[in-house]
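Help: read this over?
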Amino acid sequence: MGVIRNIKKAVIKRLKLIYKHYRYKIYFPRLYRQCCKDNPVHENKILFLEMRFDKLSNSMEYMYHVMEESGKYELATAHLHFNFSRGREFTENVKHMIEELATSRCVILDEASIVLSCLPLRKETMAINLWHGCGAFKKFGRSTAELKFGASAATLNKYPNYGNLDVVTVSSPEVIWAYEEAMNLPKGIVQATGISRTDLFYDEEFVNSRREKLYEVMPEARGKKVILYAPTFRGHVATATSPDEIDFYRFAKELGDEYVLVCKHHPFVKFPPEIPEELSSFARDLTQELTIEDLLCSADICISDYSSLIFEYSLFEKPMIFYAYDYEDYCDWRGFYYDYFELTPGPVVKSQDELLDTIHHIDERFDKQRVVDFKNKFMGSCDGHATERIISMIK
């Protein structure tokens, strides 16, 4: 039975590879050529390509609204639900995207796209990747080839994820090299324009209103300091999990008089750890209720691990704590572009005891100059005008 099972698995694997080759090397490119034939590009048409979710990600949403308000553009959206849909549904999503793309002057996305990369994109169409993370923290793309997290180099060569790109926007000149490595791009494509969505953090009215928005969903936060716990996901995208390394009862007992704890999990995570209902006056999971921008603006302290949101949070020059209880495993799984302990602009802790002790003594352990230096190095191009710079590049 074992031999038959292994043969069956091998056959299924081979059939999947054949189907993948057909879709990306033959069917989708052919469909794109057909859609381009006799259909000219619309001079002001911009397609926003959302790879995974039902709504545009925060990385593209701000730019979409700016373009919409200008009244100068014909805007379209396409949602592929990549990794979250299969077979016919995914194919239909791609077909819709290709139909819109064929007549678009520019396509804007914010992450890897094997679909866009496989198409013989017409020369009149510009592709801009707004990349969803600031700075350069955990490795991705070609930088993870042959690591546990990444694909093989052979697979990445055959099915590239960053083809057809004309511009990739990053948060500072410091990190250009990392994106060129990860995306296997020549010099000149990755540009330190700043990240579009960070323009919101320079809107004083927006920032000041976020705390009130938090109070609307969590009135208990009024009069308390706010701790944001925002870890990155673990595992692969389709089966992503979130850390479950917080004893909420203990944290409530030790911190409840002075703080509230709000959690924001990565959007890939479908089943985050549950917070006991009886602790809702102290700790809440606000992943669905508030955006990460809402919470970054509201937080007095940010606890994370390996998430790139630390770069955005540095704009506020407030304390950060890095809860890296599984650092060795994560480093082996995915790796980092910089030495983790040299990069992080705040205390690194590996246990709940250390984490609580650091929170209790945060005033004396917070090195503001270290955060400012970190911000200047990794967020130097984010000045509130990134969106207008990026839009001016569409030609």
Observations:
- DSSP finds 16 helices and twelve strands in the chain.
